[in-house]
Amino acid sequence: MTIKPYVGITGPVNVQETQDICRKFSEEEYSMETPHIPMLGFLVSYKTLNEQSTQNRRYPPIRDLPKLLQATGGKVLTMVHYNSKEPDSLSDQVFKIFNEIYETDLCRAIQLNIVWPNINQVTKIKEKYPDMQIVFQASHRAMDGKTPTQITKGIKEYGNLINYVLIDPSGGRGLEFDLDSSISLYSKLMEQCPNLIIGFAGGFTGENVSLKTRELIEGIGNKNFCIDAEGGLRDKITPAYGDDLLNLKKVRRYIESAHSVLK
Fold this sequence. Notes:
- The protein is of the alpha/beta class.
- It has one domain: TIM Barrel (Alpha-Beta Barrel).
- Helix content is 37%, strand content 20%.
- The protein has ten helices and ten strands.
- The strands form two sheets. An eight-stranded parallel beta barrel has the order 1-2-3-4-5-6-7-8. Strands 9-10 form a two-stranded antiparallel ribbon.
- Strand 7, helix 9 and strand 8 form a beta-alpha-beta unit.
- Helix 4 packs parallel to helix 5, helix 7 crosses helix 8 and helix 8 packs across helix 9.
- The chain starts with 5 loop residues before the first strand and ends with a helix.
Protein backbone atom coordinates (compact mmCIF):
# COMPACT_ATOMS: atom_id res chain seq x y z
CA MET A 1 0.00 0.00 0.00
CA THR A 2 1.39 3.38 -1.04
CA ILE A 3 1.64 5.86 1.81
CA LYS A 4 0.97 9.45 0.73
CA PRO A 5 0.75 12.82 2.44
CA TYR A 6 -2.80 13.89 3.14
CA VAL A 7 -4.97 16.95 3.61
CA GLY A 8 -7.08 16.04 6.60
CA ILE A 9 -10.27 17.05 8.37
CA THR A 10 -11.04 15.53 11.72
CA GLY A 11 -14.33 15.44 13.58
CA PRO A 12 -17.40 14.69 11.41
CA VAL A 13 -20.10 13.02 13.48
CA ASN A 14 -22.91 12.19 11.06
CA VAL A 15 -23.47 10.89 7.56
CA GLN A 16 -24.46 14.29 6.13
CA GLU A 17 -21.25 15.97 7.33
CA THR A 18 -19.20 13.06 6.04
CA GLN A 19 -20.79 13.12 2.59
CA ASP A 20 -20.56 16.92 2.32
CA ILE A 21 -16.84 16.89 3.12
CA CYS A 22 -16.16 14.07 0.66
CA ARG A 23 -18.10 15.95 -2.01
CA LYS A 24 -16.04 19.08 -1.46
CA PHE A 25 -12.81 17.12 -1.66
CA SER A 26 -13.99 15.70 -5.00
CA GLU A 27 -14.95 19.15 -6.29
CA GLU A 28 -11.40 20.31 -5.62
CA GLU A 29 -10.17 17.22 -7.50
CA TYR A 30 -8.68 15.49 -4.48
CA SER A 31 -8.64 11.72 -4.83
CA MET A 32 -6.68 8.69 -3.69
CA GLU A 33 -4.54 9.13 -6.84
CA THR A 34 -3.53 12.79 -6.32
CA PRO A 35 -0.15 13.69 -4.72
CA HIS A 36 -1.99 14.74 -1.54
CA ILE A 37 -4.88 12.46 -0.70
CA PRO A 38 -7.98 13.52 1.24
CA MET A 39 -8.30 12.22 4.80
CA LEU A 40 -11.26 12.10 7.15
CA GLY A 41 -10.56 11.44 10.82
CA PHE A 42 -13.24 10.02 13.11
CA LEU A 43 -12.73 10.48 16.83
CA VAL A 44 -13.01 7.51 19.18
CA SER A 45 -12.10 7.46 22.86
CA TYR A 46 -11.94 4.76 25.52
CA LYS A 47 -15.21 6.14 26.85
CA THR A 48 -17.08 6.09 23.54
CA LEU A 49 -15.62 2.68 22.65
CA ASN A 50 -17.23 1.35 25.81
CA GLU A 51 -20.46 3.27 25.13
CA GLN A 52 -20.05 5.65 28.03
CA SER A 53 -21.56 9.12 27.71
CA THR A 54 -19.45 12.11 26.75
CA GLN A 55 -20.22 15.82 26.52
CA ASN A 56 -17.74 16.23 23.67
CA ARG A 57 -19.74 16.82 20.50
CA ARG A 58 -16.85 15.73 18.24
CA TYR A 59 -17.25 12.06 19.13
CA PRO A 60 -19.90 10.04 17.28
CA PRO A 61 -21.48 7.04 19.02
CA ILE A 62 -19.26 4.01 18.36
CA ARG A 63 -22.23 2.17 16.84
CA ASP A 64 -22.37 4.84 14.11
CA LEU A 65 -18.74 4.43 13.05
CA PRO A 66 -19.32 1.75 10.35
CA LYS A 67 -22.01 3.81 8.59
CA LEU A 68 -19.86 6.95 8.73
CA LEU A 69 -16.96 5.09 7.16
CA GLN A 70 -19.31 3.59 4.56
CA ALA A 71 -20.58 7.09 3.71
CA THR A 72 -17.14 8.09 2.38
CA GLY A 73 -17.59 5.70 -0.53
CA GLY A 74 -13.91 4.84 -0.47
CA LYS A 75 -13.04 8.28 -1.85
CA VAL A 76 -10.84 9.35 1.08
CA LEU A 77 -8.35 7.90 3.50
CA THR A 78 -10.49 7.03 6.51
CA MET A 79 -8.76 7.17 9.87
CA VAL A 80 -9.72 6.53 13.47
CA HIS A 81 -8.21 9.06 15.88
CA TYR A 82 -8.10 7.19 19.17
CA ASN A 83 -7.33 8.35 22.68
CA SER A 84 -7.29 6.28 25.84
CA LYS A 85 -6.20 6.56 29.45
CA GLU A 86 -5.76 2.78 29.61
CA PRO A 87 -2.54 2.38 27.59
CA ASP A 88 -1.61 -1.05 28.98
CA SER A 89 -4.43 -2.70 27.03
CA LEU A 90 -4.19 -0.49 23.95
CA SER A 91 -3.92 -3.34 21.46
CA ASP A 92 -7.09 -5.00 22.76
CA GLN A 93 -8.93 -1.70 22.49
CA VAL A 94 -7.80 -1.24 18.90
CA PHE A 95 -8.84 -4.82 18.08
CA LYS A 96 -12.29 -4.02 19.45
CA ILE A 97 -12.58 -0.94 17.23
CA PHE A 98 -11.34 -2.65 14.07
CA ASN A 99 -12.85 -6.10 14.53
CA GLU A 100 -15.18 -5.64 11.57
CA ILE A 101 -14.17 -2.44 9.83
CA TYR A 102 -10.63 -3.62 9.01
CA GLU A 103 -11.69 -6.86 7.36
CA THR A 104 -14.38 -5.09 5.33
CA ASP A 105 -11.79 -2.48 4.24
CA LEU A 106 -13.79 0.42 5.66
CA CYS A 107 -10.76 1.70 7.55
CA ARG A 108 -7.12 0.67 7.82
CA ALA A 109 -5.56 3.69 9.50
CA ILE A 110 -5.34 4.91 13.08
CA GLN A 111 -3.85 7.93 14.78
CA LEU A 112 -2.78 7.13 18.33
CA ASN A 113 -3.55 10.20 20.42
CA ILE A 114 -1.65 8.69 23.32
CA VAL A 115 1.54 10.01 24.89
CA TRP A 116 4.36 7.70 23.77
CA PRO A 117 2.29 4.52 23.31
CA ASN A 118 3.94 1.34 24.50
CA ILE A 119 6.01 -0.15 21.68
CA ASN A 120 4.94 -3.70 22.58
CA GLN A 121 1.30 -2.67 22.28
CA VAL A 122 1.90 -1.03 18.90
CA THR A 123 3.77 -4.16 17.78
CA LYS A 124 0.72 -6.29 18.61
CA ILE A 125 -1.48 -4.00 16.54
CA LYS A 126 0.85 -4.22 13.55
CA GLU A 127 1.16 -8.00 13.87
CA LYS A 128 -2.61 -8.44 13.73
CA TYR A 129 -3.15 -5.75 11.11
CA PRO A 130 0.01 -5.65 8.97
CA ASP A 131 -1.51 -3.16 6.49
CA MET A 132 -2.60 -0.75 9.22
CA GLN A 133 -1.27 2.77 8.69
CA ILE A 134 -0.33 4.17 12.09
CA VAL A 135 0.09 7.84 12.93
CA PHE A 136 2.17 8.86 15.93
CA GLN A 137 0.81 12.09 17.41
CA ALA A 138 3.64 14.33 18.59
CA SER A 139 1.38 16.19 20.99
CA HIS A 140 2.26 18.94 23.43
CA ARG A 141 2.48 16.39 26.23
CA ALA A 142 4.72 14.11 24.15
CA MET A 143 7.09 16.93 23.22
CA ASP A 144 7.07 18.99 26.42
CA GLY A 145 10.56 19.48 27.82
CA LYS A 146 12.24 17.55 25.01
CA THR A 147 14.54 18.79 22.27
CA PRO A 148 13.93 17.83 18.62
CA THR A 149 16.83 15.38 18.94
CA GLN A 150 15.25 13.70 21.98
CA ILE A 151 11.82 13.52 20.34
CA THR A 152 13.30 12.08 17.17
CA LYS A 153 15.26 9.47 19.13
CA GLY A 154 12.06 8.29 20.81
CA ILE A 155 10.12 8.15 17.55
CA LYS A 156 12.93 6.30 15.80
CA GLU A 157 12.54 3.44 18.31
CA TYR A 158 9.16 2.61 16.77
CA GLY A 159 10.92 1.72 13.51
CA ASN A 160 8.58 0.46 10.81
CA LEU A 161 5.65 0.22 13.22
CA ILE A 162 4.53 3.76 12.35
CA ASN A 163 3.98 5.41 8.97
CA TYR A 164 3.26 9.02 9.87
CA VAL A 165 4.17 11.52 12.56
CA LEU A 166 1.77 14.41 13.14
CA ILE A 167 3.41 17.38 14.84
CA ASP A 168 0.34 18.45 16.79
CA PRO A 169 0.88 20.57 19.90
CA SER A 170 -2.73 21.77 19.69
CA GLY A 171 -4.57 18.45 20.05
CA GLY A 172 -7.72 19.78 18.42
CA ARG A 173 -7.88 22.91 20.57
CA GLY A 174 -7.22 25.32 17.72
CA LEU A 175 -3.89 26.49 19.15
CA GLU A 176 -1.42 27.51 16.46
CA PHE A 177 1.82 25.57 16.20
CA ASP A 178 5.14 27.37 16.38
CA LEU A 179 6.53 27.40 12.86
CA ASP A 180 10.24 27.47 13.70
CA SER A 181 10.17 24.68 16.28
CA SER A 182 7.91 22.53 14.09
CA ILE A 183 10.25 22.90 11.11
CA SER A 184 13.21 22.10 13.34
CA LEU A 185 11.54 18.86 14.45
CA TYR A 186 10.56 18.05 10.86
CA SER A 187 14.17 18.44 9.72
CA LYS A 188 15.50 16.21 12.47
CA LEU A 189 12.87 13.53 11.77
CA MET A 190 13.65 13.54 8.05
CA GLU A 191 17.33 13.19 8.82
CA GLN A 192 16.86 10.20 11.14
CA CYS A 193 13.59 8.65 9.88
CA PRO A 194 13.45 9.34 6.12
CA ASN A 195 10.71 6.78 5.45
CA LEU A 196 8.17 8.59 7.61
CA ILE A 197 5.68 11.11 6.27
CA ILE A 198 5.41 14.10 8.57
CA GLY A 199 2.32 16.21 9.12
CA PHE A 200 1.42 19.42 10.89
CA ALA A 201 -1.69 20.37 12.86
CA GLY A 202 -2.62 23.28 15.05
CA GLY A 203 -4.93 26.17 14.34
CA PHE A 204 -5.48 25.61 10.63
CA THR A 205 -8.50 27.48 9.29
CA GLY A 206 -9.76 28.47 5.89
CA GLU A 207 -8.40 31.96 6.52
CA ASN A 208 -4.83 30.99 7.39
CA VAL A 209 -4.13 27.61 5.81
CA SER A 210 -2.75 28.96 2.53
CA LEU A 211 -0.32 31.33 4.30
CA LYS A 212 0.79 28.75 6.86
CA THR A 213 1.21 26.06 4.22
CA ARG A 214 3.33 28.38 2.06
CA GLU A 215 5.48 29.14 5.10
CA LEU A 216 5.95 25.41 5.70
CA ILE A 217 6.88 24.83 2.06
CA GLU A 218 9.40 27.66 2.20
CA GLY A 219 10.82 26.44 5.51
CA ILE A 220 11.27 22.77 4.60
CA GLY A 221 11.74 23.08 0.85
CA ASN A 222 9.02 20.75 -0.41
CA LYS A 223 5.31 19.93 -0.31
CA ASN A 224 5.71 16.38 0.92
CA PHE A 225 3.87 16.81 4.21
CA CYS A 226 0.39 16.42 5.67
CA ILE A 227 -1.91 18.97 7.23
CA ASP A 228 -4.90 18.27 9.45
CA ALA A 229 -7.59 20.61 10.80
CA GLU A 230 -10.10 20.11 13.58
CA GLY A 231 -10.87 22.87 16.09
CA GLY A 232 -10.39 25.70 13.59
CA LEU A 233 -13.27 24.39 11.46
CA ARG A 234 -15.84 24.48 14.24
CA ASP A 235 -18.17 27.00 15.90
CA LYS A 236 -18.10 27.16 19.68
CA ILE A 237 -21.33 26.81 21.64
CA THR A 238 -19.59 27.39 24.98
CA PRO A 239 -15.88 27.75 25.84
CA ALA A 240 -15.78 24.12 27.01
CA TYR A 241 -13.50 21.89 24.92
CA GLY A 242 -15.58 19.92 22.41
CA ASP A 243 -18.75 21.92 22.93
CA ASP A 244 -18.82 23.01 19.30
CA LEU A 245 -20.19 22.11 15.90
CA LEU A 246 -18.55 21.56 12.53
CA ASN A 247 -19.05 24.51 10.19
CA LEU A 248 -19.20 23.27 6.60
CA LYS A 249 -18.55 26.74 5.18
CA LYS A 250 -15.26 26.76 7.09
CA VAL A 251 -14.55 23.25 5.84
CA ARG A 252 -15.08 24.27 2.22
CA ARG A 253 -12.84 27.31 2.51
CA TYR A 254 -10.12 25.23 4.17
CA ILE A 255 -10.18 22.63 1.38
CA GLU A 256 -10.19 25.29 -1.36
CA SER A 257 -7.36 27.27 0.23
CA ALA A 258 -5.23 24.20 0.92
CA HIS A 259 -5.69 23.03 -2.67
CA SER A 260 -4.61 26.42 -4.02
CA VAL A 261 -1.17 25.84 -2.46
CA LEU A 262 -0.68 22.08 -2.50
CA LYS A 263 -2.07 21.25 -5.96
